[in-house]
Amino acid sequence: MSKIDQKSLTHHARHLRLDTLVRLRWLAIAGQAAAVAGVRFGLGFPLPFALCFLVISASVWVNLLLRIQYPASHRLSDNIATALLAFDILQLAGLLYLTGGLENPFAMLFLAPVLISATALTPERTLGLGLLAIGCATLLVLAHKPLPWSPAQSFTLPFLYVTGIWAAIVLGTAFTGIYAWRVAEEARQLAQALAATELVLAREQHLSQLDGLAAAAAHELGTPLATIALVTKELSHAMPKDGPVGEDLRLLQEQVERCRTILTKLTSMGQEEESEFLETISLSHLVEEIVEPQRAVGFDVQVETRGEGPEPMGRRNPGVVYGLSNILDNATDFAESRVTIEAFWSPHEVFIEIRDDGPGYAPDILLRVGEPYVTTRSAAERTEDSEEGGGLGLGLFIAKTLIERSGAELTLTNTAPPASGAIARIVWPRHAFERGAAISPQGESTLSLKG
């Protein structure tokens, strides 16, 4: 999937669902109607009843038009969603104008449209709606109808208290808008990062399944190929060996044998790769497997292995290999001249440390490194390296997810001064590493060293 497609899908996923907004508005309409009717008929307080229901009916008509115009599953564009939320703010302001302005305790409902916008729209649109809500609240401080109250008593809130309510609405709008946007944005980023992780896992799984597909194709093609070989052999006995027909039959027999050779190679390749995948791998061999691609491009990675007792053995786990390779790639990208991998073990734990002599992580990045979309690369570098989220801060997140699925713990720190550089430390419980990844009957790895 291209970067443009990912952006398009992500932007589409942010759009408000029409059914959600319509249902929320029906709930608001029911609450407003119940409040107006309760004050007028339940409490007997005078208020402009007809005008209030005229304002409420405006929301009813908008809801009905939306239901007629669009299906329930329709997702609103940012412009339409912004316009509808702005209408809700103005409709509430009109109702509050008729029922006491900010003296009405329901004035706090100004926060609701801003909260919805913060979870689904861009910060710029949320800021615009917040300013609209604050502007309406400011006008209601200066101009509004009296608060519905008992005719036998007079009730008026001091202007200073009303100003305090206005300040509460302003602060509440700002705080809830920022807080809701931040929470929603983190949830969206996490969902996108997990989707990228699943894409990586799917690609690795497809690659591991190619050998099985090749063996299946060879098996299915074997029977019709044998039939062709038998018919060709019978025709060669029945037809004269000299002449154009004889030459064609000999050519056909040669091509049949060539096809048999290719199918035999495909079948044996699948069996060899499958047996190799199912074999156990030592810790030192695992390290060499992730280091070899770096040496192939001329980067000398120093490797050191040591431990207490026999070297641990475990299943070859594609997810762990991918995650370790990703961390090593990151280290070689930022290293000045040297990257060191130390693999060591004890009777209870297995360790891998990847060190580089680069600048290390910035203090503000170090606290959040490993989270999705946290990166130290510049905008230009992120543009150049956009494959599968490269340069966007997804590489370490994917590596961390895959490695921790295997039962390990990944810690990312900086080298202690005066030296510089970053350290990635991966620790497995030894029993988890040695138990190996569980293999399903279909040959798919569960990517878990816990089994």
TrEMBL record:
What SUPFAM superfamilies does the entry give? ATPase domain of HSP90 chaperone/DNA topoisomerase II/histidine kinase, Homodimeric domain of signal transducing histidine kinase
Any idea where this protein resides?
Answer: Cell membrane
Membrane topology recorded in Swiss-Prot or TrEMBL: Multi-pass membrane protein
Give the GO molecular function terms: kinase activity
Question: Which domain of life, per UniProt?
Answer: Bacteria
What are the Histidine kinase domain coordinates in residue numbering? 216-432
- EC number(s) from the headed UniProt entry: 2.7.13.3
> Where does the chain cross the membrane?
21-41, 47-68, 80-99, 105-122, 129-147, 159-181
* Alphabetic keyword roster: ATP-binding, Cell membrane, Kinase, Membrane, Nucleotide-binding, Phosphoprotein, Transferase, Transmembrane, Transmembrane helix
- Give the catalytic activity: ATP + protein L-histidine = ADP + protein N-phospho-L-histidine
By its UniProt entry, which Pfam families does this protein fall under?
Answer: HATPase_c (PF02518), HisKA (PF00512)
Enumerate the PANTHER family for this protein: SENSOR PROTEIN CREC, SENSOR PROTEIN RSTB
This one is known as: histidine kinase
Q: Which organism is it from?
A: Microvirga terrae
